[in-house]
Amino acid sequence: MSELDRLLEGAIALDKWPLARLVRLFEDPRPAAVPEKAAAIAGLEARGAAPRAMVAGYTGTPGSGKSTLVGQLAARLISRDPAATVAVLAIDPSSHRSGGSILGDRTRVHFPIGERRLYFRSQASDRELGGMGRATYPVVRLLERLFAYVFVETVGIGQSEVEIERLADRVYLVLQPLGGDQVQFMKAGIMEVPHAFILNKSDVGAAARRSYHALRASIDFARPGEASPPPIFRTSALSGDGLDDVLEDLIAHRSTHDAEARRARDCYFFEKWVRDEYGRFGLDLLEQQGGADALLAASGSFEAAQAAYRAPVAPPAP
Ligand SMILES: Nc1nc2c(ncn2[C@@H]2O[C@H](COP(=O)(O)OP(=O)(O)OP(=O)(O)O)[C@@H](O)[C@H]2O)c(=O)[nH]1
Ligand SMILES: [Mg+2]
Question: Is it the case that residue 104 has pLDDT exceeding 70?
Fold first, then answer.
């Protein structure tokens, strides 16, 4: 058995060490890593590890309690459903390290060290605006073959909303109660994306109640005439209040991308990869090669398409 085969079998068994090794491979931005990623995906497919996870996105304002909430939701999910497995990927704009910070510590989620069904990984975001890093999509492609749920935490301040909408099957916007003089929650553009809202820190009392009504009004204003207005869940990630309601919502909407949605998602992130790595020149070259859709269809997987893409030899524009 090759080294890669051993890693794949270990990862399918959800052993932490091989998982971490594979995640690092998928985070590796170097072109030299692409063939091994393609081989890993092919090896997973051959073992029947097709994409199966529901991908849930949690975005929202800094400090609203996203990490605490996501950690608690993950822990609750595996304790109520013996078959559930959850991977949490947190994009951390405040971390300057290239991943590896211990989210489990920060979220105060305690679980036995041998608990295979929960996996935490934090990634530094490499974009000034927060949101997703370059390694986010590749790692989601790996994790969605291994776990039943993949939770992605991003900081929501604009562009990242669009990306999380592309990535996730269901998007939650996590907010915290407003101070007294704040009237509006967020720019309308951000309010339009989420499937559901989570007003966390509902344990803080009167401010939380006032904020609930202000949020309802902001949503009605940003999304007029919507047939079924998005739910607002009031939670406390500290006390656990309201978390089961969020889980019900999650489970009720458990769906995975169908083939068509998956193609569109691959296409979007393939173009993003080309743009990020090779700029406008790279995109022109992609057009000459028939475009992302054709390249993906001909290659069989996102990673194989990356290998097949004839990148410009010039270094990317700064
Ligand atoms: N009172 C109260 N505090 C909370 C709750 N959830 C989280 N916190 C606290 O809020 C602070 C921020 O929590 P995090 O989970 O790190 O928030 P975050 O949104 O992930 O933060 P960033 O990723 O840095 O944007 C911590 O001190 C938490 O203990 C809650 O439900 N109630
Ligand atoms: Mg966080």
Answer: no
